[in-house]
Structure prediction request, 666 residues.
Amino acid sequence: MWGFSLERANSELSTVQTQPTKEKHFLLPRGPKPGGVWRALTAAVILFTGVVEAQVCDPTGNVVVFSNYEGGVLNIEVNQNIPNLKIGVCTYEAVAVNITGAFAANVVELIYAGYGSTAPSPCAGPIISGVQVNGFVPPQVTVYDAAGGNTALTPRLGEVFAPIGIPLVNCMVGTEGCVNLATGGGNSSNQIVDYFLTEFGPGSVLFSHWTDYSCFPSTPFLVSAGGNCCLQGMTTPLNPLYAPNGQVADFLGPDTDLCNGPVTLDLSNYPVINQPTFYGYYWSNGSNSSSITVSTPGTYYVCIGDYCHDAAQCLLSDTIVIASCCNFTVSAASPVALDCVSGLATLNVSTTAVNPTIVWTGPSVVNGANTPNATVNAPGIYIVTVTDPNCGQTDTVVVTGGATGAPSLALSVSSKISCDDPLVTLTAQSDPGASFLWTGPNVVTAQNSASVLVGLPGWYTAVVTDASGSCSTEDSILVRGDTISPAIVAYSLPVINCANPVGNIRISTNHPDARFQWTGPGLVSGVGTAAPSVDEAGEYVVVVRNPTNNCTRTYSFEVTEDGGDALIFIPDAFTPNRDGNNDQIWVEGACEFTFFHWQIYDRWGTLVFETQKPAKGWKGTNLSDVELPNGFYSYVLQYSLDTRPPKSRYGQILLLGGEKPAKRRR
Prediction:
């Protein structure tokens, strides 16, 4: 039978192609069913399968949807760079999804939602038994298959299916093709797209949708080619049962009580579950009606069926608790642990009831069963019932543990904290299966271990709890420490010169047994003492160690060198009067001169004396050996002592002639 053209209301669909259609006979549904009794409704339906030209629904989208009825092999080639790509697949028959392409890694999530028949797909190619997703290991792959009991509810109801007159499709089972009015038992195209956009959540936009009734083609779907994008406006109401992530809404309502009289639980106002009688309603009180009236407190539940759910297996169910009408409160503290030594525990209940009757029941109530404070001696669940003339209420107490005796506990410390051992080990020994908890000034490693490392002196406490968790023992241990470094005082620092080529650095410390280690440029001896000898200027470093705890302190000292004026002597006056006393003046050096140049000038700047010999003195004459008058004379001295660099010295000399002795007569 051949198809025909329809005029679409959607302005986006300007071109419609027709192709041969198929005649379908529906059994509800076809393929293996999830159990229960299914009644056959046979209807000859002429299915129009409209295929529009391939198109992209929204180029900014990130959701691609594929749907059909007969399943088969779905090859998707991600050949376009669509960030955060999400893929939705919906079929009735089994499908094998294969994802390839240059941008396959862009796929972050895939959801299958359909019937997912476990019978092999009727399509040509390899046998497919159940839903498969191949070549794709993303953070999230979700499969909702009604055949496996993982039914995906639609956010919107399906179309009314005659002659039943109810929305037959409450769940995702597969598509009839590119149609908006799906009356044959499958999902409409807009229902499918609405489901995936809702499940993928905020920020999800439809990029393309390809749908048909027949098997998927053997050639890969190129993502860039888009689909037939046959989504039209929504024409069906919201599904009152739908909740995201495969959940079912609470259709019996919240828990309630009988304070306003009997409570009617009515499901007839939910058309999606107001199904024909062959689906059935199974209430916990034995009723098979769509509603029941409750006048007795208790827990009530219902199992019902629809197109995708089997009431006999309770695949669609809800529970409600209906309490009696009491105007007082009951509160019992829970849980309670048995004392680990006596094996007893006291259970307490408080209530606002006036003159109540109290009854405790449980594994072993040994005292006070009819008082607010009962004594028990065995673990388990205990129930307290409080009643007044009108009603009763209960509460539950969980009792844990048992009489085991206090666990043993022995503590030890590996050593004291020192500079050699900044961390020491504390060890707790107890019974097998015990747990530990350490506290103290500085517990470095995990506090719940039998052994811990600590880094500060002080008291540390360990609490050990037995294997039952009901009995504990506590003990403390003192961690000692010695991390005091020696103090250092420098008494004197030498000045090295040619007169004193070797000097001693003298220091002291507050520890009588301190150990010393010196480093520096001119250590002569005593590198392990408090007074080493040095013969060079420079920085000297000493490390002083406390031998009792190996703590150290480091100091540095600067030794200087005096190679200048203090090492030579030039008189500032002399009397060259030939009396044999102080008749000459010369330069005296503390060390040997390696370079010497001495010049003397009169007050007019005339050179009157010059020598490069340290032993040669000035007699108060000029270069012509003529005696000079009294007065001040300036000098310039350039010199080097030993191997030290040259230096210069400037000064004045006072010349005082005095009276000269008389000449001898012959």
Remarks:
- The longest helix spans residues 189-200.
